[in-house]
Amino acid sequence: MQKEGELYNVVLNWLGLPLTIKEELREELIKEVCQATGLNKVSLLDQVHDRMAVRLESEINSNGHNSAVVNTIKDKMQLAAQRDLELMQILPKGGFFSDYVSYTLESEAPLSYHVFCAMAGVAATVNRRVFLDMGNHKLFPPFGVFLLGNSGIKKTSAGDIIISLLRESGLTPIYAEKLTPEALIDGMRGGNATGVVYAPEMTVLLSKQKYMESIIPLITRFMDSPDIWSSGTIMRGKAELRDVAITCLMCSTIDWFTKNTPEALFGGGFIARNIMIMEEYSARVKPLPPTEDLQVRKKLLIDLATMHEFLGEASLSAETRRMHIAWYTENKYNQTSSNELFETYYSRKPSHLLRIALCLHMGTHWNLEVCCECWQRSMQLLQWVEEHFELLGGKMFKSPFGEDQDLVMRIVEREGGAIQHSQLLRKMSYRMGARQLQGITSNLKEMGYLEESSTAVGHVYKLLRRS
User: Smallest Cα–Cα separation from 300: which of 97, 66, 65?
Assistant: First the structure.
């Protein structure tokens, strides 16, 4: 039988069709086809699977989103594109943030990463130079941003762009990579205790190593922008810092975030002081991005320098003040979440709301009286972020069995929505045996995520929907 002949193609297509056949006959049939084609069993099954994937993709294209097989990678990218569009509609149409979106348009990283990197960049540049009077304390712009997502989604690429601009501007110190508590304190001495803690891989900075444990409460305290901070225990002798203001920008995959960070990260308010931006896929595909627009970059640097010149007390316009008071009063005890982690976020949401509104206003209207439009945009941005909290919480607190289920689902998804049992077993062999895999696939079938059918060459799993 010729490998490229019509009969060969017919046989491969037939082998992938749903079929009830006895195990002995199946093995005999595979043996006969292998002898006729000169292929070994693994190669034959791979070719049958490739034909099935093509047929499945054709079914999806012909049926659209009404197909039983939904949420493949293409579907995820379409959903990501829709989220990008929703986010774009929230953003101001002119000013620093509009220019920044234009500057990063050819980056493959999701739009949300760039938007909140820009927000962190403004907060770090302004640092303690501007504040909102909150009665018994001052609210300064600096806060934290976590970029969370799948490996390869360009989290670090997004972070590197704003850090590059901040380095070139020279307007704020940058503390990066493996940073010990002693090194951070030493770097903040000398009359300028502000800056950006940048962790392209967060778990390198916030590791479980014993000597790094103290950096979590230290950064947590610095993110509150204390007027005076002093300690005689971390450094030799007494260390004292004045006018502290730290902005955090950290990147991590969900798996590494949950497995490699110490328990102290989830307590003490550290997480609540950050905005967590989670993306699974990016809608952008940029094989060969064009050269950066140096004119826009120059304008962004000028804008950062302009905002750095702002000094003194910011305020809310009369209308904005009424709007904020009404929202705060109505929602003080109405924010609910499925887990304790996000309860702490909601307790600090009013502060995040005002900080983001202030950053938006400075970068759009170039003054210190926050208008109701920027306050509303800030609210919409936070609501946009919160839409992913349920998904984020589910991923952060999965059991090992749940993580294995997710991995199986991702593999089936990457194979176009269907995969032979034997091929799935090979891909999972580094992690589990056939019996464990059977338990996972059985559970996924009962949950309605997978369906199993039999073909002439073995069992096939087909993705029905994504968790």
Answer: 97
What are 21's two structure tokens? 């056949």
Are 161 and 26 contained in the same domain? no
Asked if residues 190 and 242 have their Cβ atoms less than 8 Å apart, the reply is no
Q: Let me know if residue 403 belongs to a domain.
A: no
Between 211 and 275, residue with greater pLDDT? 275
pTM for the predicted model, two decimal places = 0.75
pLDDT at 70 exceeding the cut of 70? no
Q: Is the model's pLDDT at 174 over the cut of 70?
A: yes
| Biggest alpha carbon–alpha carbon distance for the chain | 85
Give the integer Cα–Cα distance in Å for 7 and 2: 8
121 touches 166 (CB < 8 A): yes
- Among 5, 8, 17, 14, smallest CA distance to 455 is for 17
Considering the domain boundaries, does residue 299 fall inside one? yes
Of 276, 232, 246, the C-alpha closest to 258 is 276
pLDDT in tens, 344-363: 788 899 999 999 999 999 99
Q: Residue 176's domain spans which residues?
A: 75-396
b/e 70-108 (16+ beta carbons within 10 angstroms → b): bbbeebbbeebbebbeebeebbbeebbbebbbebbeebb
Give Cα separations from 22 to 33, 52, 462 (angstroms): 17, 21, 21
